[in-house]
Amino acid sequence: GTYTNTWTVTDACNNTSEVFTQVITIQDTTAPTWSTTAGSLNTTIECSDATAIVAAQALFPSASDNCDSDVTNIVKNAGQFVASEECPNAGTYTNTWTVTDACNNTSAVFTQVITVQDTTAPQITTDATNLVVQCGIGMTDALEQWIASNGGAIATDNCSNVTWSNNFNTIGNDCSAAVTVIFTATDACNNSSPTTATFNVQDTTAPTWSTTAASL
Known about the structure:
This protein is mostly beta strands. It has 2 helices and 15 strands. The chain is rod-shaped.
């Protein structure tokens, strides 16, 4: 606003001067500034830590102004989760704030980046178990079932489903084969955990006579 001051002066014969006017104009053209240090609300959180994500989202910067003693009318623009191209569980939330003083001067944008990551490998809750089969009929079926069931291994992950892979090729018809297979559980962000088991083929069955006893 303004202060308007006026003066007159009168001489010894009571002649009075014209009014002299002074106008003092008070203005506020300075925007509020952030008291919170830039970048101090940024944080990196594991995707499974829901409590930490909620806590990070609840953070708020503070501001001050040269003339307005109450600049708590801070406006938040909450950003949506943007997933990483390499990992759907990972990504970022980008939140921004502005604040305006009583003279409609608006602050610079304050930015917070919450980075969500997945660096935790799946947990093997049940290891793969060894399998021993007799060679011959049924051996291949048993092997296929064992491979398809990941050797009985079970895994869980903190953020995503688990996919299984193995390094098995083939054992042919060897009746004394012992093949070690690595079953690997991998999550959506390519964190992996292995479990190892052995497939043993043995022959403990003696030959039998095809010719009927006493037939000769």
